[in-house]
Design goal:
heterodimer; A: mainly beta; 5-stranded antiparallel sheet; 4-stranded antiparallel sheet; about 60% strand; B: mainly beta; 3-stranded antiparallel sheet; 1 helix; elongated
């Protein structure tokens, strides 16, 4: 049987079944302490609140991590769709969500976007909406996020 | 208090194991392990970034694992698609991202840097 676990003062490695951990290449390892792992210890939610002016509104906020990473971490976002439903947004760098409301005849009633960008120490959230009639409701938007860091 | 850390044989399987709080690492099911080296663990083998040079194609070398690894990549500004050229080379195809200028004027600036993480897991 092949040796599959190596532990010494500098490494812990486990090879895939059938491979000798002492001679296995990188692709034949199941675990190596030489490689980083994604680790998550920061999460939260954010509700977009609009500073309104007439038929327009703006949002600007900063979500601080409380620490500074060497490089921007991976941050995954879910939009709150209501009723306990969540929709993944964007990729690990942030998201740009925008939507346009239309009348039955195809005319525009409203337009808004929310942009989230990730830096080494925070998430910047900015948004804007415009509506073309007073009776159009202000868009509701909130999301949750999870920060996954890696050290490599 | 339950034993939660084991380096050695676990029911005949060698490795390093950490169980969830309250679970005995010697008897816990796989679902109750936080770390188990007999299962493939998602780890980061390499990482890199590509400076914003506009749209087009950028090739990058990746560590040779003997297979095409799953890669996590992201960019705030562009739509990016990944193409595997070989086990050791990938191409990032960079397309224009979403523009909202016609409705609002320019959206706040976004970084065009592409960041990527090469994992130890084979891609689907």
């Amino acid at each position: 049987m092949a040796s599959r676990v190596l532990l010494n003062s500098s490494a812990l490695k486990v090879s895939k079944p059938g491979h000798n951990v002492l001679t296995a290449g990188a692709g034949q390892l199941q675990f190596s302490s030489d490689w980083s792992q994604l680790g998550g210890d920061i999460e939260g939610t954010h509700a977009v609140t609009w500073a309104t002016s007439g038929r327009a509104g703006n949002h600007s906020a900063t979500i601080n991590f409380g620490k500074s990473f060497p490089t921007p971490p991976c941050v995954f976002f879910d939009r709150n769709m209501g009723g306990g439903r969540w929709m993944p947004l964007g990729d690990a760098a942030g998201f740009l969500y925008h939507i346009q409301g239309n009348t039955d005849e195809g005319g525009i009633t409203s337009y808004f976007y929310v942009l989230a960008t990730v830096s080494t120490s925070s998430i910047s959230v900015q948004g804007r909406y415009l509506k073309w009639a007073d009776n159009v409701s202000v868009p509701g938007f909130s999301f949750r996020f999870r920060v996954l860091e890696y050290n490599i | 208090m339950a034993n939660r850390v084991l380096l050695g044989n676990r029911n005949g399987t060698p490795g390093f194991f950490v169980s969830k709080p309250g679970q005995n690492v010697l008897t816990a099911s796989d679902d109750n392990l936080l770390l188990a080296t007999h299962l493939e663990s998602l780890q980061i083998v390499g990482s890199g970034s590509i400076a914003d040079s506009g749209t087009g194609a950028v090739d990058r070398g990746i560590p040779n694992l003997g297979f095409q690894p799953f890669i996590i990549f992201s960019c705030e500004k562009y739509d990016v698609r990944l193409q595997y050229l070989s086990n050791t080379s990938v191409r990032f195809q960079i397309f224009p991202g979403t523009h909202l200028e016609s409705a609002f004027g320019p959206v706040p600036s976004r970084s065009g840097v592409i960041r990527y993480l090469v994992t130890n897991i084979q891609r689907p």
